[in-house]
Amino acid sequence: MVTAKLLGLVFFTCSLEYFSLPHLAHRLFPAWSYLLSAIVLWFIPIPLLIWLPVISVIASSCFFTRRFNGGADSVMFWVGLLLALTYTTADSKTHFSVISVMTIGFVGAFAYFMAGVSKLLSPQWRTGETFQWSLSQTCFSETFPILRQHSRCLSLGILLWQLSFPLALTHRYLAIFYIVSGLVFHIVNARVLGLSRFTLAFSCFYPAILFLSHSGDH
Amino acid sequence: MVIMAIKGLIFNKRTLPLDLLRLFFTSWSFFDRPGDSFRTRLTLYQDATPILEQNWPETVSFKWWQLIFNPAGNDWHYSKQLESCAAILSQKYPSEDFLQSREFKQYLNHILKYVGPKSFDTISVLLEVKKYSANADFQRLVFLTLPTTNKKTFI
Known about the structure:
The complex is a heterodimer. By secondary structure, chain A is an all-alpha fold. Chain A has helices spanning 2-19, 28-43, 52-63, 71-88, 96-120, 123-126, 129-135, 145-149, 151-163, 172-192, 197-203, 206-217. In chain B, helix 3 packs antiparallel against helix 5 (102-115).
């Protein structure tokens, strides 16, 4: 299953991050448990072991590095939980495993939609003021003046794109459009703001969104 | 790993309900409103002589692989979170309560681990705020000079 492989890649990169930051407190538990989770997701996704990624995320974000991974932890938790339910119920005669996969798609679309709603409710986002401010919240030294010049236009574009993201669930061509634009969005975010952790984490939603859009076609 | 998990559970049981809530019901409100800007300036001293002055955390130079793997960038964002948490608390609580708070100690510990390998006997930490609403320059929030040794932590 593509989602499991992608989630495995997310756990693997997070594990490497923890290993490469020696000054980060309490990093060894998440580093090792995320590495084991990646191995489970890639090579041995059996019902008993598939819960390890979920337990790892809960333990790491509640007891150890806590806020280090930010919203990406939440994405990993939800995708991991629904994936574990999918694998655990795959052999039963119920359609629960299909429902779990579909829920991954719904959660992904909901995440983008809610980000859009919070921007819609912010007058400073609509005027481009917040966009300009967010450009200063970057870990890189570059300032990207071209983005500042078009801040209002880009703000409204992002707002409309996020609000309309649930349309991706209705048709496969729309799904492909939103998935490709989503990847571009996250790669630009990673380049400009340094939010690389979301590039792979959010891509875990995309196979399920594509699956849901095919269901929508029929 | 089991021992580490049990230790983690004992030390963080107070904050567990909040952390679990944050994981289940995360906020998707990223960058929806502008806020105050904070900055931290460190000065390291050896025998009362300043040997290094720097902003903390330092910015990261871009490499193409950082599009999907950026530990230094993620650490930068995490450091800014600790810094903004400490700065907000310093404005809300009296200094004696604030200086004893877990959040401020976490902020200081992260700074000390960050500068750890360098040789110094005293460190001064200057935390400043630039209010978004006011058109003013950075204002001092906290200034501390701490005698310390390498790898010493406050928690």
